[in-house]
Design a protein that fits this description.
The protein is an all-alpha fold. The chain has 3 helices and no strands. Helix 1 crosses helix 3 and helix 2 crosses helix 3. It starts with a helix and ends in a 7-residue tail after the last helix.
């Protein structure tokens, strides 16, 4: 579990990254949240790193041909 400070940071980043996604889009928000948790699990604790991970989760994958 995370301490209160990390929990607040993750929630703030999630809310900021998903500001243009309706709250009813729970799947998209859950996906972004999972990517934020992955980032923390890999040692990325800074606000900038978490925002980048969240924004990357919202970008469609690039298909190489």
């Amino acid at each position: 579990m995370f301490d209160a400070e990390m929990t607040a940071l993750l929630r703030a980043v999630l809310d900021e990254v998903c500001e243009n996604i309706p709250v009813s889009e729970t799947g998209a928000r859950a996906y972004v949240a999972s990517k934020l948790l992955d980032a923390v699990a890999h040692g990325q604790f800074s606000t900038d790193a978490l925002k980048a991970a969240g924004r990357e989760a919202l970008n469609p994958p690039t298909v190489w041909r």
